[in-house]
Design a protein that fits this description.
Oligomer: single chain
Strand content: under 5%
Largest sheet: 2 strands, antiparallel
Order of helices and strands: HHHHHHHHHHEEH
Structural class: mainly alpha
Number of helices: 11
Amino acid sequence: MNASGLALAYAMDLVLGDPEWFPHPVRGFGILIRSGEHCLRPLTCGAKSEFLAGAALTGAVASAGWFLGRTKNAMWRVMLTWTALATRSLLVEAQTVIGALDANDVDLARQRLRRIVGRDTAYLDETEISRAVIETLAESACDGIVAPLFWLAAGGVSAAMSYKAINTLDSMIGHPEPPYRYFGRSAARLDDAANLVPSRLAALAIVAAVRLRGGDAGRAWQIWQRDGDLHASPNAGQSEAAMAGALGVRLGGTNYYDGVLHSAPVLCAEGRPASVHDARAAVSLIALVSGIAFGAALLALAVGRRK
C-alpha cells in the first residue's frame, strides 16, 4: 500500500461508508468461521480438543485474510483497504441514535442502538443510551479506525485483512462463556495481541483530539493512565478510559446481554452521568481521531518508502 492508495481508500470510506450491497470481506470471514465451526465441533470431545479445533480455525481464517490481501492488482488493494476502514459507518450510526434522542423518541433510539451494540437495549433510558453510544464510539475507534490503519502502515493490505479476520473471529467465537470458553480462546488471545499497540494509540489519539479541540487533555491522560487497565482484557479499557476522561463522564458499569447481567469496571467514577450532549461531543472527537490516525498512517508510509 502506498500513500495515494491509502488516501483514495480513506476518501471512499468517508464518502461511501460500508454499503450493505457491497460484498464485504468481513461477511466472508463470518461464513468461513460458521462453516469451520460446523465442521470442527463434531470432532471435539473435551476442553483440549475444543481448544485445538478453535486454534486450527483461528489460524485458517487469519491466514485466509492474509492471502486475500496478497493481490497485486492496485485497484483491488484500494478496495480491500476501503473495506478495512469504518469511520463513516461508525459516525453515521452513532448520529442516528443521537438524532432519535434529540427528537425525544427513546424507543427509536433503542432500536437504532441495537445496530451497533450487543447489550440489551429495550429498557435503557436516555442516560444509558448515551453511555452506550460513547462506549461504542471509543471501542470502535480502535477496531474500526486506528487498528486497521496501524496494520496497513505496518504490514500492508495483507496485515489489515488478517486483522479484520482476527477481529471477526473474536467477535463471533472469542467469548469466555460456554460454548466458546475453550473453542474461542485462541481467537480471543490473538485479538488481544493484534490490538495491544493500536488500543493504546487510539487512547493517545483521543487525548490529542481533546487537546486540539481545546478540552481537558490532562484529565483525559490522567483517567486513561489510572483506569485504562481496570478491565480483565489488556485492551478493552484503554480508549474508553481516555474518552471518559476527555468528556468527564462515567463509563462502564452494568449491562445486560440476552437477559444476563454483566458487570464491567467503572471508568472515571468521579465523572457525571453521560448525556446526549456528551454523545455528540464523542462523535466530534472520534471524527478528529480518525483524521489523526489517517495522517499518522500516511506519514508512516512516506517514511517507509524513503527507507
